[in-house]
DNA sequence: GTTGGTAGTCATGTTTTTTTGACTAATTGA
DNA sequence: TCAATTAGTCAAAAAAACATGACTACCAAC
């Protein structure tokens, strides 16, 4: 046992956690698209040029684990899966907006 | 020439830029320490357990290039270098605070 | 003139993230 | 039954980020 193997939460920097949860090549864009309503796997692939199945799948999974997105099986005609902003995700919108409003 | 080789600004996601500028293993913590006043290379190394010269140097350089920090040679007794929040850096504080206020 | 503090760079190696391409599996429509 | 759409998984490779250790260079004190 080492002297300090924290689960690597933000040891001293509260902003670190939320930054990590939104960081990565595709998460910001996925979050942004989710602002306009539920997003779907294949649709995201088409909307994110240069993306790929693996990366989008990983981003969705991690954002779900971070409780930013909620995964729902929609029992409709083509039977598909939707990812929607969770309550926490909704709460993050203000943070996201403050970043959007900040233009270099 | 490809159809779209942007300098990879935020092609469609305004938040992406600011997220990238604060992302990384050490930048959030450096930013946070810079809130309390000018920071210095060796001091940061001591204050950030597990960090190393290379990583801190890179973080400082990138944050300087992103115009978050301003590098100044202080013409005093021991003659040293200080990194201070730029105007843009100051403007980012509100964004940072909104992240700090957001507790999981 | 040697030690110690300032602030780094450089080459290399390891680790993490991202991409690629093949493959799976259920459902729907013709 | 065949083809397309849904939503993925898996192994491997490539790329990016991060760490290690040696080295540089300036200045001041002893």
Automatic annotation (TrEMBL), chains A, B:
Keywords: DNA-binding, Transcription, Transcription regulation. One of its GO terms (molecular function) is DNA binding. Residues 13-104 form the HTH hxlR-type domain. The keyword Transcription regulation applies. This is Transcriptional regulator, HxlR family. Pfam families: HxlR. InterPro entries: HTH_HxlR (IPR002577), WH-like_DNA-bd_sf (IPR036388), WH_DNA-bd_sf (IPR036390). The keyword Transcription applies. It comes from Pontibacter indicus.
């Amino acid at each position: 046992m080492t002297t300090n193997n924290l689960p690597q939460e933000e040891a001293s920097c509260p902003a670190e956690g939320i930054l990590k949860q939104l960081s990565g090549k595709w998460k910001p864009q996925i979050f942004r698209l989710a602002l306009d309503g539920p997003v779907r796997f294949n649709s995201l692939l088409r909307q994110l040029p240069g993306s790929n199945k693996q990366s989008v799948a990983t981003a969705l999974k991690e954002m779900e684990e971070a409780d930013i997105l909620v995964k729902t099986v929609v029992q409709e005609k083509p039977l598909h899966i939707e990812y929607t902003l969770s309550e926490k995700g909704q709460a993050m919108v203000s943070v996201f907006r403050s970043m959007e409003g900040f233009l270099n």
